[in-house]
Amino acid sequence: MNTIISNGNDKNCIEMASKVLNKDGLVAFPTETVYGLGANALNAEAAAKIYAAKGRPSDNPLIVHIASIQDVYKIASDVPENATALMEAFWPGPLTIILPKKDIVPDGTTGGLNTVAIRMPSHPVALSLIKESGVLIAAPSANTSGRPSPTNASHVIEDMDGKIDMIIDGGDVGIGIESTIIDLTGDIPTILRPGFITKAMLENIIGPVQIDKALIEPDPNLRPKAPGMKYTHYAPKGELTIIESLSYDNQAIISKINELVNTKKLAGFKTAVIATEENATKYQCDTILIIGKANGDSTIAARLYALLRECDKLDIDYIYSEAYSAGELGGAIMNRLLKAAGHRVINV
Ligand code: TXA
Ligand code: MG
Hints:
Blueprint: E1 4-7, H1 13-22, E2 27-29, E3 36-40, H2 44-54, E4 63-65, H3 70-75, H4 81-90, E5 95-100, H5 107-110, E6 115-119, H6 124-133, E7 137-138, H7 153-160, E8 166-169, E9 180-183, E10 190-193, H8 199-206, E11 210-211, H9 213-216, E12 239-244, H10 250-266, E13 271-276, E14 287-292, H11 297-313, E15 318-322, H12 330-340, E16 345-347
Parallel strand pairs: 1-8, 2-8, 4-6, 5-9, 10-11, 12-15, 12-16, 13-14, 13-15
Antiparallel strand pairs: 2-3, 3-7, 4-7, 5-6, 9-10
Helix pairs in contact: 1-6, 11-12
Bound molecules: threonylcarbamoyladenylate (TXA) and magnesium ion.
Magnesium ion is lined by residues 140-141, 149.
């Protein structure tokens, strides 16, 4: 397939993409979190094409992207008061809300679940694409399943060129990690995936919120409520290990990483370290990847996936990363980093 790559600012871009969506084709587009791979959410055949292009397991449901709050009532069978309050507070923006679904949403979009994930993105290109096409857009992140989510158009091209109809280039995304997911179908509102909208921000609007236990303790017997959270994710090809100090002993982290790096270098392997600006000159690895300042959680979130992809480009065999739990986004960053590392953590 010949994939059209078009700049989101070009006059005809949105019109062309709208045509593709209305013919049940696939369009990758920027959102404020990561790039999405979109298709008509209300057409099972269109949604099926997403799974094929990504190589995604079919039990992993898709998020439906909408551009006006009224659209929620087309696809959700019950919209409780706390849902309305969250929509008013955080939409458009990086929050996905799980509600009971109406029959109009095919099982092919929700992976057979009787609930539907809904989000109104704030990126102007995403919003105008949904509005102009008149299509409710099912969109997972636009990466090959298992790879880091794309934070710019060239990441999407790497994974999707030749497999989808069109890619809209909207430059670098702002946030860099996927939306917060909150499930409002149970007794207590539950965060299924941490993100830019934090637990405290949600509780400020609707009161007590819990975090899906499967996210806190990586216990293989606990099944995450968001099916996608159980898969290996965001993983670079090289082996990634996180080095963490529970007593925040920076020197201990540096020494441990250098010890590991030197062992692997002696054995002839290529090594990289993902480090803060403050520590960047202290490592003896082949490649140093600077993720931002230690207290710069929004920069760290925005750069994480791009650095993991960079490791693949450079054919790095072993990657060591400092832990980044500081700041409001620390929890969400560590959630993604731990998954990318397959929960390989060394405590020093
Ligand atoms: O920021 C985002 O949310 C991005 C952009 C493109 O909007 N999208 C995204 O989609 O991250 P995806 O497919 O990569 O992740 C969706 C997650 C998966 O873990 C999936 O299992 C979960 O949402 N999910 C979707 N529908 C669900 C449902 N009805 N119940 C529970 N989890 C659901
Ligand atoms: Mg994804």
